[in-house]
Amino acid sequence: MGKYCFGIDVGGTTVKCGLFTTEGEAVEKWEIPTRTEENGKNILPDVAASINEKVKEKHLDPSQIEGVGIGVPGPVSEEGEVPVAVNLHWGRVHIVKEMEAMTGLKVKAGNDANVAALGELWKGGGVGYHNMILVTLGTGVGGGIIVNDKIIAGSHGAAGEIGHAHVDDSIKDPCNCGNCGCLEQVASATGIVRLAKEELAAWKRDTLLKNRPLSAKAVFDSVKEGDELSIRIAERFGRYLGKALAVYACVTDPEVFVIGGGVSKAGPILLTFIEKYYQEYAFPTCRQAAFALATLGNDAGIYGAAKMVL
Amino acid sequence: MGKYCFGIDVGGTTVKCGLFTTEGEAVEKWEIPTRTEENGKNILPDVAASINEKVKEKHLDPSQIEGVGIGVPGPVSEEGEVPVAVNLHWGRVHIVKEMEAMTGLKVKAGNDANVAALGELWKGGGVGYHNMILVTLGTGVGGGIIVNDKIIAGSHGAAGEIGHAHVDDSIKDPCNCGNCGCLEQVASATGIVRLAKEELAAWKRDTLLKNRPLSAKAVFDSVKEGDELSIRIAERFGRYLGKALAVYACVTDPEVFVIGGGVSKAGPILLTFIEKYYQEYAFPTCRQAAFALATLGNDAGIYGAAKMVL
Fold first, then answer.
1. Which helix (H) or strand (E) holds B152?
2. Closest of B6, B48, B46, B45 to residue B29, by C-alpha
C-alpha cells in the first residue's frame, strides 16, 4: 500500500484539496477555484493539474500514492460516473475514467455529502464506529448513511437524502424538492427560523429574540441564556428531528448519529434537544445509539474522499 | 463451489428445511418440530442430525455441499451468535460454532426476517434487483433491508424493524414494543382491523363489512367488490404505509419494495393503495422505485438461508 493519498472535494465555487498520509494525517491542504464556465469542462483538468503539480513539488513517486478520492455535489454511480451535477454545470461526466487518464493514479468518486460522512467516520465525530448516520444541518438538511464502514449510495444516488423525509402534514408551502412537509423545512437553519417566526407571532411575553436578527444561531444563543421562547423553539426542532432519526434507526440501526453543518456550531446543547425526543420515539433496541457532534467542519469532504481509496 | 446447499428456517414450532442446488432449485423440502423445552438445547442438534441424515440419504459427499444457512427469530451477530431468542427459549447461543462442529459444513446464520428478504431477492418478488426493502404485513409489520445484494443487520440487530417507525401522534395505546403510534399499529393485519373498527363506528351507510367477520382479508375482499367503506379503509392504510415507505426510501434508496406476509394475499390491488401514496410523499429521485408482491410465502426463509452461504 502506498504511503499517501489525495482527497478532493469539488464545490460550486472552490475545490478543496488535501494530501494525506494513509494513516489520515493531513500533509497539506489547499484550494483552487472551480471554473464552472463552458459546462465546467476545466474542472477535472484543473484538479488533475493541481495533483500532478503537488506530486512533483513533494518529489513523490506514483508507487507511493494509494490514489485520489473525489467528492462532487451530485449523484455518482458505483463506477464513478455522474449523470448530471447542476452546481458544476456538468452533464454526464465519467470522473474516474477522466481523472485516471490525466493523473495515472487510481481514482474513486462519490457524492459529497456521503463522502463527508465517511470523513467524519474516519477522523471526526464518528471515530471508532462502523455504522453511522451523519445529519448535516445547514441551509438544508443533508445526510450520509454508513453501514459496516461503507457509504450507502442508493440505487438512484439518493440514499441519505434524509432532509426530504415527510414529517409534517400541516405544512402547505413547498420544499426545494417540490414536496411539502419535509424535515428540511423545520430542522435546517432556515427551518429553525420558520419555527421561530411562528412562535414569535404568537408570543406575548418578553424574549431575547425580539432584539436579535432572527437566525438558528440567535435561537441557540438565546437558549443558552435561558430564554423561554427560544427553548420552546429548540424543543419543537428537537421533536421533529429526534422523531425522524428514530424512524431512520428502524431502517439501518446505526451505532451513532453524528450531527454536523452550521447549526451544529451551537454545540452539545443541540444534542440534548435531539436526543431527548429520539429516546421518546425510538424502537427500544435502537435507543442505545450514541449522539455526537461532527468535528471536521468543511474538511470532512477531503478526509472522506481520501478514505475512499484506502 | 459445491453443487448443493441447505437452507434452514427455525420457527417457534417447526423448523423448515430445504436442500437446494446452488442455482436455487429446491431438491427437497421437509420440516422437523422445534423442541423448545430445556431452553431449546435440542434445537440445533435436531437440525444437525436432520442435515447429516439427508446427506447420507442422498449419498452426498461433503465436498459437494457449499454450506448451511440458518435463519432464527432473534438478533444475530455477524459472527453468527444470538444473544437471546425468546421464541426458541434460548439464551446466548453461538449457532455457527455449534452447527459447524456438528455437521462439518460451513454455516452462516441470520435473523429470520432479514433472511426471508434475501430469499425474495434471490428467487421471489425481488428477482433481478440488488437494492430492496421487504415489507412483511402479517400480525405485525416486519422488514428486511438489502443493499447491494447483502442483508443489513444493524448494529444492534434491529435494522429492518420498520414496523416500529412512529407514524401517528394520535394513537395513545401502546404497540407490542411499548411505544405508541407505530406503523405496525395501523398497517399490519391487526392494524387494518383497528382502522376498520374506527371507520365502521362512524359509518352510517350500508357496507359489506357489517356482514363479515372483521379482518384484513374481509376489508380487501370487500374492496374488490367496490365497497365504499372498505375502499376508505384501504386508502387510510395505503397512506400510512406509502408515506412511511417514502421516508425509508430517503435512507437506503431501494430499487424495489417487495410486499409480503398474509395481508399481501390480497394481490396486486394492495399495491395500488400503497404506491399511490408512496408517489405523493417520496423524494422525486426515489419515485422510480418499483413495487412487487412477495412470491415465496413461507418458503422465503429457507431460500434466503440457502443463499447466505453462496
1. none
2. B6
Closest by CA position to A80, among listed A89, A67, A70: A70
Q: Specify whether the CB–CB gap between B274 and B248 falls below 8 A.
A: no
Q: What is this model's ipTM?
A: 0.92
Q: Of B158, B246, B253, which has the smallest distance from its Cβ to A156's Cβ? A: B253
Report phi then psi at B277, rounded to 5.
-80, -30
Are residues B251 and A130, on separate chains, in Cβ contact within 8 Å?
A: no
Which sign does the torsion angle of CA B165, B168, B170, B173 carry? negative
- Chain A CB contacts of B155 below 8 Å: 130-131, 253-255, 289
User: Residue A231's closest CA among A264, A272, A191, A202?
Assistant: A272
The residue among B251, B258, B280 with the most chain A CBs within 10 A of its CB, best to mutate, is B251
Is the CB of A287 inside 8 Å of chain B's CB atoms? no
Quick one: cell of B242? 406509502
Question: Do B154 and A131 make contact, defined as CB atoms within 8 angstroms?
Answer: yes
Which of A161, A179, A251, A281 is the best residue to mutate to test the B interface, defined by the most B CB atoms within 10 Å of its own CB?
A251
Higher-scoring residue by pLDDT: A166, B87: A166
Strands (E), chain A: 4-10, 14-21, 26-33, 65-72, 81-82, 93-94, 107-111, 132-137, 141-147, 150-151, 256-260, 290-293
The pLDDT score that the predictor gives to residue B180 is: 97
Who's near B164: CB < 8 A, 6+ residues apart?
A250, A283, B175, B177, B179, B182, B183, B184
Q: What is the pLDDT of residues B146-189, one digit of tens each?
A: 999 999 999 988 999 999 999 999 999 999 899 999 999 999 99
Identity of the residue in B156, B166, B250 whose CB atom sits nearest the CB atom of A243: B166
Name the phi and psi angles at B229, rounded to 5: -65, -40
Retrieve residue A277's grid coordinates: 425526543
Return the closest-CA partner of residue A244 out of A282, A300, A194, A201. Answer: A282
Bridge partners for A4 per DSSP: A21, A65
The DSSP code sequence of B40-66 is HTTHHHHHHHHHHHHHHHTT--GGGEE
A38 CB-side CA count, 13 A: 5
| Residue B300 buriedness (CB in 10 A; 0-12 / 13-18 / 19+) | buried
**Cα(B80)–Cα(B66) distance, rounded to whole angstroms?**
17
Using the CB atoms, write b or e for B152-191: b if 16+ within 10 Å: bbbbbbbbbbbbbbbbeeebeeebebebbbbbbbbbbbbb
Please enumerate in sequence order all residues whose Cβ is within 8 A of that of A286, keeping only pairs 6 or more positions apart, or say none: A246, A249, A250, A253, B156, B158, B161
With beta carbons less than 8 A apart as the criterion, state whether B188 and B244 touch. Answer: no
Regarding pTM above 0.90, the answer is yes
Task: With CB atoms and an 8 Å threshold, state whether B252 touches A152.
Answer: yes
- Minimum-distance CB partner of B161 among A145, A162, A283: A283
> Across the interface, do A249 and B158 touch by the CB < 8 Å criterion?
yes
- Asked if A180 reaches chain B (Cβ–Cβ under 8 Å), the answer is no
Tens of pLDDT, residue by residue over A59-92, are 999 999 999 999 998 888 888 998 888 889 998 9
Which residue shows C-alpha cell 455449534? B98
